[in-house]
Each structure stands twice: as structure tokens, then as C-alpha cells.
TrEMBL record:
Record-linked Gene3D superfamilies: 3.40.50.2300
GO terms classed as biological process: phosphorelay signal transduction system; regulation of DNA-templated transcription
UniProtKB keywords: DNA-binding, Phosphoprotein, Transcription, Transcription regulation
Every Response regulatory domain range: 2-122
Domain HTH luxR-type: from-to ranges: 145-216
Name of this protein: Response regulator transcription factor
Organism from which the protein derives: Herbiconiux oxytropis
Domain of life from the UniProt record: Bacteria
């Protein structure tokens, strides 16, 4: 897997390069601005882009906007964006343009090297990876509406959260200490409750669930802008 990194903090950028190369992932370029990121992607056509959301010069959403442009202009390039903050809008904007090949994680997840690199490989393979804290915000907002999220059992909510993170039935079963058959039963109930068609493809089911949650959360807070919450341990 060939990767281009976009991160303006030198120490974190160098740390990411070292981490990925130690895991057998080839870093073909590592840059500090969104402009450089797009130039290198166009030049190198990597398999995956890993980028910070907040980049120079304003340190607001340059990295996010670059990621969205890359997704449109280079459909074969997967994108993983990293952030210090939970922002529902980032997730919905990233997931909207096309199916799969996208992830949104908080920077604190990098510390769990095995899970982080597994998420990168899943995204590069066309899957999705959504941070658990982002999923929690989506589920919380959706549960405050008068929609069907409130009709789910506690176990179904656990399954829903893991589905939205991009986890497979096998992973969910192992995580919850249950059988894959039981997970399938729970996911079927979730689809029925949401009125969603059953999808055999893991990636499409994840996107369907995330988009449902995002839409429900927006409907429940009509007219209110998306809120950002600091990630645990962030400044």
C-alpha cells in the first residue's frame, strides 16, 4: 500500500511516517500543507491519503476540503482524515460523495497501532472506518429525535455502534462475546426498525446506517449547526 501523508505538525508527521513504515506500509510522500497534499496525490496516485483536517494557512478545514477534492478527482484513492475534535459534519461530508474508501478517526486512535493500521487497510480496500466517539455523537443525536432509534434494545444499540464504525459481523460477535448468528439477527432487526433494505455488502450497510443516523440527527436539530466537541485528552 502506497500512502501520502498530509500533516502540518512536523513531529506527528514524522511519527506517522515511522509508524506506517514499521508496519510495512510504503509512505511515498509526507507534506505539511493541503496544497502540497493535492499536488503529491496528482503526481504519485497513491492508494491512500492520510490527512489532518486542520491545515495551514487558517488551520480550520483545509485538509477536509482537500480530502473532498481528492475523492472527486481521484476516485481510486482512499482517504483517511484525522482530527483532534469530534465533528458530525466532517463525517457526513466525507461519506456523501461515494461509497466506501473513507475513514474519519480522532488522532488519539493512532496510539493503538494495530487497530489504526487495520483501519487504514480496511479503508484502502474500499471499506469505512468511523471513530467510536463520532458514532456515539450520531447515535446520541438520533436517539433524541422521535425516530426509531429509541425502539432499539441496549444490545441492538451496541451492535449499531459497531456497525457504524465499519466492523464486520465476525468482529462484532467477538467484541460482544456472542455468535455471528446472533449478530445477524440484531442487524436484521436494526434494518427493519430503520426501514432500510438489507445489504449483504458490509461497506454498503455501514454507509446506509451512518447516513440514516446523520439524517436523523440533523432532523432532530433542525436549524442548529453541527457542534464540535474536544476529543478526550486534546487541547
Amino acid at each position: 500500500m502506497r500512502v501520502v501523508i498530509g500533516e502540518d505538525e512536523v513531529l506527528l508527521r514524522e511519527g506517522l511516517v515511522h509508524l506506517l513504515e514499521n508496519e510495512g506500509i510504503e509512505v511515498v510522500a509526507a507534506v505539511g500543507t493541503a496544497v502540497e497534499l493535492e499536488v503529491e496525490v496528482a503526481r504519485l496516485e497513491p492508494d491512500l491519503v492520510v490527512t489532518d483536517i486542520r491545515m495551514p494557512p487558517t488551520h480550520t478545514d483545509e485538509g477536509l476540503l482537500a480530502a473532498l477534492r481528492i475523492r472527486r478527482s481521484h476516485p481510486g484513492v482512499a482517504v483517511m482524515v484525522l482530527s483532534q475534535h469530534v465533528q458530525r459534519r466532517y463525517a457526513t461530508e466525507l461519506l456523501e460523495p461515494r461509497d466506501g474508501g473513507v475513514g474519519y478517526l480522532l488522532k488519539q486512535r493512532i496510539a493503538d497501532v494495530r487497530t489504526f493500521t487495520e483501519d487504514l487497510r480496511r479503508v484502502q480496500a474500499g471499506g469505512t472506518a468511523l471513530d467510536p466517539d463520532v458514532v456515539a455523537v450520531l447515535v446520541s443525536r438520533a436517539s433524541k429525535t422521535r425516530g426509531p432509534v429509541g425502539d432499539l434494545t441496549p444490545r441492538q444499540l451496541e451492535v449499531l455502534g459497531l456497525m457504524a464504525e465499519g466492523r464486520s459481523n465476525a468482529h462484532i460477535a467477538a467484541r460482544l462475546g456472542t455468535s455471528e448468528k446472533a449478530v445477524v439477527q440484531h442487524t436484521s432487526k436494526i434494518y427493519d426498525t430503520f426501514g432500510l433494505p438489507v445489504a449483504a455488502d458490509d461497506h454498503r450497510r455501514v454507509l446506509a446506517v451512518i447516513r440514516y443516523l446523520a439524517a436523523a440527527g440533523t432532523a432532530g436539530t433542525a436549524g442548529a449547526p453541527g457542534t464540535a466537541a474536544p476529543a478526550a485528552g486534546s487541547q
